[in-house]
């Protein structure tokens, strides 16, 4: 039975898990709390792939006091030996009397085996506590481990009338300073950021993460879709300024010598087939990114990329920022290529959230395709 007390402690375990956001990929964010006589005696979270899991930190903090206690963990304890040994064994050895779990581990190597192991040893197990919140924290992990594809998020900043520029191709942000800060915090949580060659040509973005204050952002990998491999050799995304890798996807028709010139500069060039509508096969691009361990991808445009991704139903989630301005019809629309025939067939967002960013409005939600 799930009690209010269980939910309260699971909320604390979730807070622990969130400390690892953006740092654990391709592993999940996981938090754990150990409670005895209504006192928290240990806590921990997963910090980075290859290092100890959340429960191991919490058990170490609680020490011998763990005996007879209740362990809360946002994800089922693992039952396999990966880069670290199985947590379910350590949990059983500690002598905890009860384990409360947020969600089952979707990893095919685990999938309920951790829970089975604990039950077989006479440990009480309650699962599914604050499950929607625990799942939300790990949408990228869940998708990547079950499909091999990254969690793909559309990001765009635009005017009230959906334009990303005022007049033709001029550059600069439509939205204000608070939106920029939110975007940089977003970038900090993704494994990779993707833009099309057109955006590189017009904006020449560095695609680095610049967080306010002391905290240094971890740059996401930079991914560019450039079917003809046409971007300038001097583009900022190709510069050595960032420690993150730059990956370019171009068409199989591009001359291999041209690819080799960029590869010599440490840039990974992938040649892919053309897909729907003559553009690069985006599904293939996502598959290759997934194979490289990229479990979350923030797509920052431009219009053609957003339109193609929408048409091919590849977005999982969207963050859209609206500046309170009418850019007018000379501005470039935020997407091109996608159209709908009416209210019942238009793709839309569900579980929509609204947040104010200075003068701008942030609209976020899951993509619902029809
Ligand atoms: C947990 N607690 O804190 C994490 C878990 O290579 P390894 O050994 O780190 O194993 C990675 C897998 O372990 C990962 O895919 C997921 O199934 C589980 N991650 N499990 O019980 C944790 N990070
Ligand atoms: Zn584990």
Short précis:
Keywords: Hydrolase, Metal-binding, Multifunctional enzyme, NADP, Oxidoreductase, Riboflavin biosynthesis, Zinc. Helix content is 27%, strand content 24%.
Protein model, in words:
Strands 10-9-8-7-11-6-12-14-13 form a 9-stranded mixed β-sheet. The model has no long low-confidence stretch (mean pLDDT 94). Helix content is 27%, strand content 24%. The chain folds into 2 domains: 4-141, Cytidine Deaminase, domain 2 (3-Layer(aba) Sandwich), CATH 3.40.140; 148-368, 3-Layer(aba) Sandwich (Dihydrofolate Reductase, subunit A), CATH 3.40.430. With 370 residues, the chain is an alpha/beta fold. The protein contains 11 helices and 14 strands. The two termini are 38 Å apart. The longest helix is centred in the first third of the chain and has 15 residues, at 4-18. α3 links the parallel β3 (70-75) and β4 (98-103). Bound molecules: ligand AOF and zinc ion. Zinc ion binds at residues 53, 77-78, 87.
Helices and strands, with pairings:
Layout: H1 4-18, E1 31-36, E2 39-45, H2 54-62, E3 70-75, H3 87-94, E4 98-103, H4 113-120, E5 124-127, H5 131-137, H6 139-147, E6 151-159, H7 177-187, E7 192-196, H8 197-203, E8 221-225, E9 246-251, H9 256-263, E10 268-272, H10 282-291, E11 296-299, H11 303-311, E12 317-323, E13 348-357, E14 360-368
The protein binds ligand AOF and zinc ion.
Ligand AOF binds near residues 49 and 107.
